[in-house]
Amino acid sequence: MSETRPTAIALLACISGLVGCDHATKAAAEWTLRDRPPVSVIPGVVDLSYAENRDVAFDALSRFSLHVPSLLLAVFALATTAAVLAVSARRRDRSGWEHAGFTLIVAGALGNALDRLAHGHVVDFIHVHFWPVFNVADILVVAGVAFLLVGGQRNHLPAPD
């Protein structure tokens, strides 16, 4: 089989599995960390600490005194995810890195959007002391962007002699 693009079913299964992992970790965090003190993983560096994020990354909305309803944030996240999927579907010359990048971004965005729809907030629980508290979905989005950057650079490198 010469087709290298993942099938729609395989893509859906991968995204579903990643969203499931994100939600499983959030459920575990809520069950074990909510209303309890942080759990030190690496003393002074990384803690597990339950937090409910009703804002966006880095509390950007609060910094500008904007109060956006959670449902609107979820709709925006879903619309953005649909746009990423549309861009991904149009690109026929994507590398494996780019396929993986789009998949990770979509899974992370869906994970957090579903939280907002179901609970009105996103559950965060990983706290690296020099960074705001985050979750697995956030890691998926950041890793996805990194994969897209690597894939894009690889497409612009000259072919070896």
Order of strands, main sheet, comes to 1-2-3
Tell me the series of helices and strands, N- to C-terminal: HEEHHHEH
- Taking all Cα atoms into account, the compactness measure Rg is 18 Å
β content, as a range?
A: 5-15%
- What is the overall pLDDT average? 86
- Number of domains as seen in the coordinates: 1
Inertia-based shape: globular
Oligomer: single chain
Major beta sheet summary: 3 strands, antiparallel
> How many alpha or pi helices?
5
SS-based structural class?
Answer: mainly alpha
The percent range for helix content is 55-70%
Total beta strands: 3
The low-confidence parts are none
Measured distance between first and last alpha carbons: 28 Å
Spell out the key features of this protein.
mainly alpha, 3-stranded antiparallel β-sheet, 5 helices, 3 strands, globular
Describe the structure in your own words.
The chain has helices at 8-33, 60-63, 70-90, 96-119, 136-156; strands at residues 39-42, 46-53, 122-128. By secondary structure, it is mainly alpha-helical. The protein has one domain. Strands 1-2-3 form a three-stranded antiparallel β-sheet. α1 packs across α4, α3 packs antiparallel against α4 (96-119) and α4 runs antiparallel to α5. The chain starts with 7 loop residues before the first helix and ends in a 5-residue tail after the last helix.
